[in-house]
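CORE FACILITY INTAKE
Project code: CF-77B
Contact: R.S. (postdoc)
Sample description: multi-component assembly, two entities in total
Requested service: structural model of the whole complex
Turnaround: standard
Below are the sequence entries exactly as provided by the requester. Do not edit them.
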Amino acid sequence: MFVDWTYALRDWATYLDAAWLSLKLSLEAFALAFVLGLLGALARRSRHAVLRAPAAVYVEVIRNTPVLLQMFVVYFALPSAGLRLSPVQAGVLALGVNVGAYLTEIFRAGIQAVPRGQSEAARVLALSPLRTFAHVVLPQALRNVYPAVVNQLVQIILGSSLLSAISVPELTGTAMVINSRTLLTVQVFGIAAVLYLVLTNAVVLVAGLIGRVAFKPPLRPAERPRPLSAVRRLLPARSARPGQPVHKEA
Amino acid sequence: MMITDPAAQQKAVTTSRISLSGVHKRFGELEVLKGVDIDVEPGEVVVLIGASGSGKSTLLRIMCDLERADSGAVWVGGVPLHDRKRAPEIFGHVGMVFQQFNLFPHKTALGNVTLALLKVRKLSRAEAEERGRAALKRVGLADKADAYPAQLSGGQQQRVAIARALAMDPAIMFFDEPTSALDPELVGEVTGVMRSLAEDGMTMVVVTHEMRFAKDTADRVVFMDGGVVLEQGPPEQVFGSPAEQRTQQFLHRVLDT
């Protein structure tokens, strides 16, 4: 048994390369999704039906078709439309477009949750609609949805495993290859699972740190994404440190 | 009816005069304003009173172009607000203080006060902060410049909101129930600031349920009922010997509680 693990770990460099690729393409897809989500949310809230309608169709189609099928469309069907992408490019595009639809709805809700009075105050101060959005509405909307957005990034990392189906050498696909060579099924997929756990929690940890400095006033602990949050909930609540204000729950 | 105002020929807001005539406004089935005429002279402090639903807040929101009248002429500071194209000229030249403060929660007190100075007036940061600090000092909050709204009491937040409006050097200040969201013990600090503004000659239109403020600060009290101006006059007259029965009933209700 112990020998099996050491044998399986001989491929450590391959696993790490694959995990790195998973992370890298996930971050790229997330950047794409973030931009699509913001534009989508703005279009969904536009006064003009020319913008509202395509955004609504985008959200409906993407959220109601399988992501795996969307990957096949990008990788296998787009070439016949003249767009030939490498597996990684196709994967980034498919994942980004997919999560962009979810982020569209998340951003839309976040913008909607900013009270009307905020834009009214800005309007009386003569701020243009664009400046009002950039300086007043968007910062508050991003704060509203920050945990949900970070959650979508985690979803991208997990969803990237499906890209093994279009031969992207990411973590899951690589694990399958190593498995078929070594037949150490438990060890190989165990290692892959651990690496996914490390990736997602590292991303959440970094997002939490960014959340501490990016928002003003700083996010309260309850508003910050934290790694292992489900496990934390099993632990007894830490008593407040002396001198720390206790946050009362409503 | 057409009202001619010499300042209307110019772009900038040059007067503090307000003149509304025949203003109607409906929200769907509900007719909120049924033909309101009202004039405010420069330097005048006018307090709008009336039961909720009488249309006073809607009237105030029409005066700063947050609502558009369905018909009627609305001149504010020489800008015809009934003219869609020209109405936005009023923004930045009048101040509005809201019941819910509407401070920007992600900006400090100073950040709230300087935002429009920086982005609209295009002042340098140093100039904007100097003017911003002066405005905060004016409302007695010089020491709270770096506090976020969540760290301030309701009364302090409302004073920051007043400072934010004052920093733009407005020709007219509008107040929409500025003390209605405050704990009773915090009302005084806000009405105190408003009183000192009135003493400095600021043109003010105030919707409020603070009858004390109306009595001792208003030049004129306007009683609205059912979407029309039912009665108006100096506070002594409206409070002392109201002519209309509806006014008497309303005052009886609010003054006896």
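Facility notes:
- The mean pLDDT of chain B is 93.
- Strands of chain B lie at 18-27, 30-40, 45-49, 71-76, 79-80, 94-97, 172-176, 203-207, 220-225, 228-233.
Invoice: internal transfer
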